[in-house]
Amino acid sequence: MRLYDIENGILEILERGFNDACVNEDGEIDFDLAQQFLEELEGEREEKLESIALYVKELYHEADAIAQEELKLKKRRQAKEKKAERLEEYLKSSLLGFGEKKFETPRVALSFRTSKSVVITDESKLDKKYMKAKVVVTVDKTAIKDALDKGEVVEGAAIEEKQNLQIK
Fold it and tell me: Which is nearest to 30 in space by CA: 42, 17, 41, 39?
């Protein structure tokens, strides 16, 4: 039975004092049967809650294992990228050292293309016209919470109380 069905059965017994399963062969309500059925439903509910909670824990453990694997893969990827960059610099210095601008075989072709980039050697000597202001405005939720806790009215904000489930 689903947790929803179990809970509905419990509520039905608690509200009406019985449900269809608590009627004997004579069509009369058997309150002992209702009590027994209620206890069975409560037991099933506890089992179902425990099963779902254990499943939630398992999912979090799997997610954590995946996150750990992601970190390992990220480190491996970064190591491969660094090695490729070092080898690329090695190729570059070898070609330029021999004055070559191109190298080609049936399987690979190496060549250079020219690019330009600005290098700032001393930022303090630059004219202000070459500077950009970067302003980042964010909401200070801590200050708002402190103000609301003190009883101040902060338009556009409110404290929301939540119930966070902990599974251990």
Answer: 17
Q: What is the pTM of this model?
A: 0.60
In the predicted model, is pLDDT for residue 90 greater than 70? yes
Judged on CB neighbours under 10 Å (0-12, 13-18, 19+), 3 is middle
Rg (CA), the chain: 35
Q: How far apart are CA 115 and CA 110, in angstroms?
A: 16
pLDDT number for residue 18: 59
Coil, helix or strand for 30?
Answer: coil
Would you say 10 and 41 are in contact if contact means Cβ atoms under 8 Å apart?
yes
Per-residue pLDDT of 105-126, as tens digits, reads 999 999 999 999 999 999 999 9
Evaluated on CA atoms 102, 103, 105, 106, the torsion sign reads negative
40: number of Cβ within 10 Å = 13
